[in-house]
Amino acid sequence: MRENRLRTLWRNDQAVLNGWLAIANSFSAETMAHQGWDSLTIDLQHGVIDYAAMVTMLQAISTTATVPVVRVPWLEPGIIMKSLDAGAYGIICPMVNTREDAQKLVAYSHYAPRGTRSFGPIRATMYGGADYPSQANDTVVVFAMIETAQALDNLDDILSVEGLDAIYIGPSDLSLSLGCRPVFDDVDPKAAQAIDHIVERAKAHGVYAGIHNGRSDVALARVAKGYRFVTLGSDARFLAAGSQAVLGEMRAGKV
Amino acid sequence: MRENRLRTLWRNDQAVLNGWLAIANSFSAETMAHQGWDSLTIDLQHGVIDYAAMVTMLQAISTTATVPVVRVPWLEPGIIMKSLDAGAYGIICPMVNTREDAQKLVAYSHYAPRGTRSFGPIRATMYGGADYPSQANDTVVVFAMIETAQALDNLDDILSVEGLDAIYIGPSDLSLSLGCRPVFDDVDPKAAQAIDHIVERAKAHGVYAGIHNGRSDVALARVAKGYRFVTLGSDARFLAAGSQAVLGEMRAGKV
Amino acid sequence: MRENRLRTLWRNDQAVLNGWLAIANSFSAETMAHQGWDSLTIDLQHGVIDYAAMVTMLQAISTTATVPVVRVPWLEPGIIMKSLDAGAYGIICPMVNTREDAQKLVAYSHYAPRGTRSFGPIRATMYGGADYPSQANDTVVVFAMIETAQALDNLDDILSVEGLDAIYIGPSDLSLSLGCRPVFDDVDPKAAQAIDHIVERAKAHGVYAGIHNGRSDVALARVAKGYRFVTLGSDARFLAAGSQAVLGEMRAGKV
Amino acid sequence: MRENRLRTLWRNDQAVLNGWLAIANSFSAETMAHQGWDSLTIDLQHGVIDYAAMVTMLQAISTTATVPVVRVPWLEPGIIMKSLDAGAYGIICPMVNTREDAQKLVAYSHYAPRGTRSFGPIRATMYGGADYPSQANDTVVVFAMIETAQALDNLDDILSVEGLDAIYIGPSDLSLSLGCRPVFDDVDPKAAQAIDHIVERAKAHGVYAGIHNGRSDVALARVAKGYRFVTLGSDARFLAAGSQAVLGEMRAGKV
Amino acid sequence: MRENRLRTLWRNDQAVLNGWLAIANSFSAETMAHQGWDSLTIDLQHGVIDYAAMVTMLQAISTTATVPVVRVPWLEPGIIMKSLDAGAYGIICPMVNTREDAQKLVAYSHYAPRGTRSFGPIRATMYGGADYPSQANDTVVVFAMIETAQALDNLDDILSVEGLDAIYIGPSDLSLSLGCRPVFDDVDPKAAQAIDHIVERAKAHGVYAGIHNGRSDVALARVAKGYRFVTLGSDARFLAAGSQAVLGEMRAGKV
Amino acid sequence: MRENRLRTLWRNDQAVLNGWLAIANSFSAETMAHQGWDSLTIDLQHGVIDYAAMVTMLQAISTTATVPVVRVPWLEPGIIMKSLDAGAYGIICPMVNTREDAQKLVAYSHYAPRGTRSFGPIRATMYGGADYPSQANDTVVVFAMIETAQALDNLDDILSVEGLDAIYIGPSDLSLSLGCRPVFDDVDPKAAQAIDHIVERAKAHGVYAGIHNGRSDVALARVAKGYRFVTLGSDARFLAAGSQAVLGEMRAGKV
Predict the structure, then answer these.
(1) CB contact under 8 A, B147 and F118
(2) Which residues of E touch A (CB under 8 A)?
(3) Please, what is the end-to-end C-alpha distance for chain B in angstroms?
(4) pLDDT digits over F117-156, tens only?
(5) Chain B residue with the nearest C-alpha to that of A219
(6) Which of A199, D93, D137, E23 is deepest in the core (most CB within 10 A)?
(7) What is the per-residue pLDDT for B84?
(8) What local confidence, expressed as pLDDT, does residue A254 receive?
């Protein structure tokens, strides 16, 4: 079975550099995959992407060594299993707020006896190899998103769920839920405290922690604190930022 | 009829800042259209885009004041007319090498008596207004690409074709055809000379000249020489450049 | 933030004329949006439309002043949030039968502290404006569909849920559930009585009431009774009716 | 081989009632096909439709007895042959202005020895039957569009091309080319005269004549003059007209 | 209303030969539908297919007498109802493990008073006929998948749910859940025993039993034991097997 | 630059085993690519595939070592260049009947100074490598289809065109043009003679010869005669053949 470089990097105590895809297109996904990201996450939740586009994007990413990850829209078994069957090597699931949520997530994403994932890895065997059925449980990485006050309250209960590999923080949602401004980087103190707390508890439970970032200085600081999966920017943000930079230069030149 | 801001800017002797779309997606097109480009060109020639995607991208651009332009794959009446019917306010046509080519281009893109464009502006009337049929000939802008040694030889013959509004230079193709390296900005002397020559002849004929650029300093210099439609970067290039910048910062930070 | 004309019309005690889209196509959506409807509803439930087509249709509608509304397939957080992120200014949710259903609907469609909507208004900020995050809760309109005997039993419990702006009646489903024929206009007495009752209770609770109609005389009568959001026909029905009219005239002429 | 009802109706001296599709969607096409049209034309020229959508629309039409016809964007062998391979039983080709144009059209659309159509009727054999290869030449109907002053000048030369079954008039383009207003029904006298002239010459040559119409009274009058294939309205026009009718009634009712 | 040949065959005590579609394409679906399968199942669960592709595939199948069946991704009302509205004559639902699951499945797929299916059979009436609303409950066939140890434990509770027409076995999932290897044909003894047991109990309850097979000898043996709906192979498997056969012959010939 | 295995195999005097794709889907293409074909040809001419689907299929093939080839619909520069830009490593062009046709084909598919291909290898550089611009002319393989009596008459003129790497025979079209039955394998004597003649002349000119086959025995015999690129079957044919085999077994078993 093809290795999951997320696990390889983690075994070496290295952080994963994750890119983000919100545009439903296989050519833009392939372009991003050729830039050197360790992994790319196809965002089915807030990205403008559905399952059909995701499949072609997974194929595009599969032309490179970049690891394909999918953020599903919700904790719903249908789309989690379809994403895995299509070859996702990582699943990020939003709004895991309770121990029961986390248990469901583990169940939906692992074959028996560890879980209740239905069998039919139609593209995953092409991507992963013929032994995917027996190796998938130990290869795929599942991230539970910790992004609400409720999840914070249940943090240890969630982190102790057997089979949960990793967690992922959406700073915007976490901030909103704590009554703070919804931003990625310069979060309010209450959110900042939570972000520090979560990575500490995750380390204590042997669970890998990931987080969404806007700027590299913030991402580097978070890696220093123990985060091992850091997202930076997104395809859509690169379009806006690249345009703004160029237009600014031209308008400054009176054009 | 909705004005064509290209003509408005030109009447004021201002240059048009044109963005470039190679990704077949209406959300990325809409994102680009919200950045402040004067116009956006959907590239059906070297972009990874076909007619069906183009229609949704034209709609996305139409949610803003940015002028929609289409580069067609070739001097072929079917796609030129379909692009116009779909609401393109500008057409860029590759490889116009002879006076006859230029005459065909004008014919395909104008209604009788000026040309032979077939009647059926099905989306163009929604975009442009109910008087599109009578105003289109004077509103839409047509660019003939001057990008070969043959076109250079025939330059005055081409520029003097009645109804040809504008020309557009692809520095890569022009360079290749002249035996130089295919680049946008730091072109070889022979190509640089041609680029200067073309804008001079265009001005002499009262034809607007446009050109593809990679960097803003180059674009500004070309505007200073008389170019009035300058393209900078593209959606796909912004993805690569934005990723490279961020990844460089992170790798420098040992992540 | 761009105003929601539904709220503007309602403040002036005017009824909203709503068109209906069952065809998954951005050009037909744009054609409909240019006819003067106050709002257009993209029907993801019984229409033959999925999320990907919906996005292009929302863009097409956004080229006009018509307000974009989405009927989701079911009370499910994933698609409700994705529709809002894509720029829907109204959500119609089927089969809201209990107070708990209505509370979930409000939660899924509002940001904290009013609800639990996840943050990521990727296209909504382009459509609504940069202040969408802070204004969305007070701008977007959410309709709970009252269309079963059970919902009738729980009517006041549903209508008193805080944050529920509006309700919408599907006369067919309501009729079926009451043991009547599933029609839009000439409903059986039991359904007619329920339709009158619902608008009365809605008015008592300060909740706006909408309803699906086939004919304009029926819609006018319902407006007179207090309905403030009336749907008439649909794209697919106009195709059938228009064809039948023309074919009837021709066959009568012996062609 | 499945009969071509166009030929059957013509053998009985009956006119064909043809509907028109400009919306790229298989569900709207199927809806139209269920209304009783003798044939439906998928318009790849001025309709907002490409090849990929056309295939699904041909399949949708194939669920009924309605005959599928395709108007190609231009006299170009690639798309003519692809449309036939996909199961079109009729081809309408724009802008056939000379005898040579008409000869090319016949060549592209018939197998040797009558023409040079390339062999590969991949979906056509499913639609037509296993004997499609040997019967297609005598089953498919090819229409040359007569819509310019030049075509009028060459009318007899065109009509006498062997293998040309039928012609089709676009009153808008014909009017434009003759210096008249581009309309379907109430054409200017010069265009009206041409329309009468063309059907007379077609009859003289044993070629069937078709024409585009907006209103049924005009279509009936043209059938009376000898036209045997009359188009009425289109899917997009039914959307606009249906909406206008309903909105007019509601606005009149002060809603 | 168009008959459901599944019911007709069953009334004659004949088994249904079912083909399987995992490729999201209407042309491949039409090709399969022309081969003589009694029914074809579009697999939205493990197949690489979403709703939008499914609609075009249902249309493609509707050009033949083959019965269209859909396997939904999960026991979720939105997609079950959308599949039925789109004209599916059979629904296969995965992971029905309890009596409550089975009751929900029956409720979601039948109109009141038998269930709670929402009314809007937009394509189903075109496929089935104008009396679809009154006949659908007795025409459509619903299969509950029995594929876990839990479902085996609850077998009689499930089979006795009123309105449940049929069950379907996924031998892979059933095997996995019982601690056996996930295969279709040569299942481990424990799974084999369960497969025999299930069909016996189904017969006792008057419920039709279906099962997934890889080879025809296995399918024939299962029909002999009482299975009345047998799936064989799939589109994707035919591609692999056909390629392997040909490549093997060529490589043996030293090419 | 990534090698073109067609050239590598040919240098070793080995024949290329080529598979054929007529289904517009990236998952079926990826499935085919995993079977071990040396190359796969995406058929834009008689296959039911357009440019947009082709791009995703090229990406799917790029996940393996199989060489991606495209058959274009016609000798038209737009689609030839777009296919190359999208990463095709081989182009098969139908109906090359004259020396001028062959010269155009070579011109359209090579950069200056060898040809007039426009510069913009947007996906090709990702697939082939950064040195694609300088290496493409010597890497990509171009096949001229010899499939008419006219081409036979001009055979030596065509084969001697500089830069023409290879030819490809469509036995059906060649047969039709010679007045024979349109089949792949058991061609009529006149066509058989032509097929033998063509490979002899190709060898004399140092041009590689390819041919379409239905059965492996025929393909093996043709390889023995000197053909070095043999196509066998197609995705659509495997679906039909696989279904027929299984259905035959079941019907023989009285199911």
Answers:
(1) yes
(2) 22, 24, 45-48, 50, 52-53, 73-74, 76, 79, 94-95, 147-148, 170, 172-173, 176-177, 179, 182, 236
(3) 55
(4) 999 999 999 999 999 999 999 999 999 999 999 999 999 9
(5) B250
(6) E23
(7) 98
(8) 87
Q: Where are the domains of chain A?
A: 5-252
pLDDT-derived band at D255, boundaries 50, 70, 90: confident
Structure tokens at A25: 């297109």
Give me the mean pLDDT over the B84-101 stretch: 98
3-state SS record for F161-192: CCCCCEEEECHHHHHHHCCCCCCCCCCCHHHH
User: pLDDT > 90: what percent of chain E?
Assistant: 99
Nearest chain F Cα distance for residue B179, angstroms: 7
Q: Which of F48, F177, F182 sits opposite D123 (nearest CB)?
A: F48
Q: Are E240 and F31 in contact (CB under 8 A)?
A: yes
Find which of F74, F180, F181, F187 to mutate to test the D interface (most D CBs within 10 Å of its CB). F74
List, for chain E, all residue ranges whose pLDDT scores fall below the cut of 50: none
Q: How many residues does chain A have?
A: 255
Confidence of residue B46 (pLDDT cuts 50, 70, 90): very high
Is this complex's ipTM strictly greater than 0.95? Answer: yes
Touch between chain C and chain F: 3 or more Cβ pairs under 8 Å: no
How does pLDDT run across A186-229, given as a tens digit for each residue? Answer: 999 999 999 999 999 999 999 999 999 999 999 999 999 999 99
Mean confidence (pLDDT) of chain A: 97
Task: Give the integer Cα–Cα distance in Å for F234 and F170.
Answer: 14
**Across the interface, do C123 and A147 touch by the CB < 8 Å criterion?**
no
- Tokens (6 digits) for D11: 């053998």
Using DSSP's 3-state secondary structure scheme, residue D41 falls into: strand
- Amino acid A206: pLDDT: 97
Judge residue D137's burial from the number of C-beta atoms within 10 Å of its C-beta, 0-12 exposed, 13-18 middle, 19 or more buried: middle
Question: For residue E63, which residues of chain D lie inside 8 Å, CB to CB?
Answer: 59, 62-63, 126-127
CB pairs under 8 A between B and C: 40
Which pLDDT does position B255 carry in this prediction? Answer: 86
The answer to whether A34 touches A42, Cβ cutoff 8 Å, is: no
Structurally, what CATH architecture does the domain formed by B5-252 represent?
Answer: Alpha-Beta Barrel (3.20)
- Kindly report, residue by residue over D199-246, the tens digit of the pLDDT: 999 999 999 999 999 999 999 999 999 999 999 999 999 999 999 999
> Is residue B240 a contact partner of residue B247, using CB atoms and an 8 Å limit?
no
Check if E205 is active-site. no
B87: closest CA of chain C, how far (Å): 12
Quote the pLDDT of residue E254. Answer: 87
Q: pLDDT tens across E114-140, in order?
A: 999 999 999 999 999 999 999 999 999
Report CB contact under 8 Å: B26, C56: yes
Ramachandran bin of C179, using left for φ above 0, alpha for ψ from -120 to 50, beta for the remaining angles: left
Residue C254 predicted with pLDDT over 90: no
Which residues does B contribute to its contact with D (CB < 8 Å)? 50-52, 55, 76-79, 81-82, 85-86, 111-113, 116, 118-123, 133
Count of CB pairs separated by less than 8 Å, C with E: 55
CA distance D24 to B102: 32
C-alpha B58/C-alpha A131 separation (Å) is: 46
CA–CA separation, F30 and F45 (whole Å): 20
Q: E strands along chain E, which residues?
A: 16-21, 39-43, 67-71, 90-93, 141-145, 166-169, 208-213, 229-232
Please tell me the distance from the alpha carbon of residue A164 to that of residue A158, in angstroms, as a whole number. 8
CA distance A63 to A34: 9
pLDDT at F109: 98
- Residue D130: exposed, middle, or buried by beta-carbon count in 10 A (0-12, 13-18, 19+)? exposed
The active-site residue out of D34, D46, D205, D212 is: D46
